[in-house]
């Protein structure tokens, strides 16, 4: 049994956590052969569901689901909710840019130094964490393929992890990894993930169980931002 | 009895934003998926929240379903299991004491085949292949599948080192695969 196949089985069973889960999820986002191996194991294991008998749920549950859907984005667009949050962020960003301009005008001329043109410029995104004074800083260095995530001041609560995602314009969110609370970390991204990052790319932060989302679908999104050149 | 609804067609309908298609899938599959959520979540209230989460996320994720790769019910079952596990892990306090019953507690449940998820031969095969495994290997794989626990949780429950549990499972998975493909 090959190592990737074993990893696929472990992922399908939900055995992994922490760094192992991250590595497997990273692979899932970038390696179609691995996606097929995981699907193959899910298929192999599926007959075991026969051992779980059907149980009727509360008849009122459908109404609850229909009610929740009325508040949810339309089908086929799981990124819409994220985009909506992003628009809100852009709005506040525009406001602060306007405020900054006012300050610049009031304090007299400022010297504008254009960034050096050599190599693609690093891109940054900054996310405010709700109900805290904290910000999560994301820096993408395209020339090195490195992502730096600074979560200084964030504290682990022992129950949740924050997971960082990139949200492609036409696709499902891809995990960039679980944020290490209280630390600045640098990761080398695989080429397929790196291709999704660039100016205007949306990054989003979700709250997950320790180890990150198992289903590959983000949990509640608490912040998002667009990458832009410094 | 009306003919069973075409679930593949209904899954396409959901991806296209047809609310009635979602209701069709809900009516046809919610009892099965609720059984799965109940198994993972352990209590009815939490399982109902998980089931709601399953169909609400299905509404936006149905396009991920590829009929060439899996039966609709097989895919939905795995989808529900993964969503229920996500919820469970998001809620679970790390300081909660793990249940004391050992992994072997679910080891020898008799198959209650409902013949929906797979052809009879495949079903017989995985049960046969699991039964060929030695007990610690079989128990660990079954517990992981039915209760959605990680290596670390398996090790804590059984009070054995993490490395031991990993080697049980990995050896078990290798033998399972060899048997399934024999």
Largest sheet of chain B: none
Helix content of chain B: 55-70%
**Largest binding interface between chains:** A-B, 60 and 85 residues
Helix content of chain A: 25-40%
Order of helices and strands of chain B: HHHHHHHH
Q: How many helices of chain A?
A: 6
Specify Rg of chain A, calculated over alpha carbons.
21 Å
The count of strands of chain B amounts to 0
The profile of the biggest β sheet of chain A is: 5 strands, antiparallel
What's the quaternary structure here?
heterodimer
The average pLDDT of chain B is 81
Question: Separation of termini of chain A?
Answer: 47 Å
Strand content of chain B: under 5%
Task: Detail the topology: elements first, then pairings.
The complex is a heterodimer of chains A (230) and B (182).
Chain A: H1 3-13, H2 18-30, H3 32-45, H4 61-70, H5 80-106, E1 123-128, E2 135-141, E3 146-150, E4 160-167, E5 174-178, E6 184-188, H6 191-194, E7 202-209, E8 221-226, E9 228-229
Antiparallel strand pairs in A: 1-2, 1-9, 2-3, 3-6, 4-5, 4-7, 7-8
Helix pairs in contact in A: 1-3, 2-3
Chain B: H1 7-15, H2 19-41, H3 44-61, H4 72-91, H5 120-131, H6 135-147, H7 151-158, H8 162-180
How is this structure best described in words?
- The complex is a heterodimer of chains A (230) and B (182).
- Chain A has 230 residues and is α+β, with helices and mostly antiparallel strands.
- Helix content of chain A is 34%, strand content 23%.
- In chain A, the strands form 2 sheets. Chain A has a 5-stranded antiparallel β-sheet with strand order 6-3-2-1-9, with no helix packed on it. A 4-stranded antiparallel β-sheet of chain A has the order 5-4-7-8.
- In chain A, β2 (135-141) and β3 form a beta hairpin.
- In chain B, α1 crosses α2 (19-41) and α3 packs across α4.
- Residues 93-119 of chain B have low confidence and may be disordered.
- The N and C termini of chain B lie far apart (40 Å).
- Helix content of chain B is 67%, strand content 0%.
- The longest helix of chain B is centred in the first third of the chain and has 23 residues, at 19-41.
- Chain B is mainly alpha-helical and 182 residues long.
- At the A-B interface, α1, α3, α4 and β7 of A face α2, α3, α4, α5 and α6 of B.
